[in-house]
Amino acid sequence: MNMDIAAVNALPYEDFVDILGNVVEKCPIITAAVWSGRPFLSLAALEAAISEFIDALPESGKEGILRCHPDLAGRDLQSGSLTRESHEEQAGSGMGALNSGEASRMARLNQEYKERFGFPFVICARMHDKENILRQLSARCQNERAVERARGIEEVKKICHLRLQSLVLTDNRV
Ligand SMILES: NC(=O)N[C@H]1NC(=O)NC1=O
């Protein structure tokens, strides 16, 4: 599936949500909401609409988005119940191939992070390898809650950007 922005703009909302509903993990309400903003002049304009919708949410809503994300190398990966997108991202960054030391460190730090902040550690896995993810997780456990809320949302937007790129052709294609 790789449509251009004109084809995206022509979609009835049912198809729009079916195709683009997971660009923010398990948050199809965001996709469904921005459909009202058609026609989008470009993929960048669609991405900006998503970003503005997220930014307009109260802090509780932003935390809710973070809570819809599965842990990296967590129980959904073990049980095979990740979304297709998340599975590809986690596999690509080596989350499915941690050695036992890395796996237990990851589980311990993920737990520590969640206990401290009340939402999971979120990072754009496609932009990092496993060593880098573990280093960032450990460092980010030390931050303030508000800093981490904002940081997590930045990462959600990076994930969204890459998911959109794989679904919609960019404007300057031949
Ligand atoms: N917790 C977390 O960061 N999850 C994710 N990151 C990513 O790139 N895909 C995910 O599912």
UniProtKB/TrEMBL annotation:
InterPro entries: OHCU_decarboxylase, OHCU_decarboxylase-1, OHCU_decarboxylase_sf. It catalyses: 5-hydroxy-2-oxo-4-ureido-2,5-dihydro-1H-imidazole-5-carboxylate + H(+) = (S)-allantoin + CO2. Keywords: Decarboxylase, Lyase, Peroxisome, Purine metabolism. It is found in: Peroxisome. Its main location: other. GO terms for cellular component: peroxisome. One of its GO terms (biological process) is purine nucleobase metabolic process. Pathway: Purine metabolism; urate degradation; (S)-allantoin from urate: step 3/3. Its EC number is 4.1.1.97. SUPFAM superfamilies: UraD-Like (SSF158694). GO terms for molecular function: 2-oxo-4-hydroxy-4-carboxy-5-ureidoimidazoline decarboxylase activity. NCBIfam families: UHCUDC. Belongs to the OHCU decarboxylase family. This is 2-oxo-4-hydroxy-4-carboxy-5-ureidoimidazoline decarboxylase. It comes from Pogonophryne albipinna. The lineage of its organism: Eukaryota, Metazoa, Chordata, Craniata, Vertebrata.
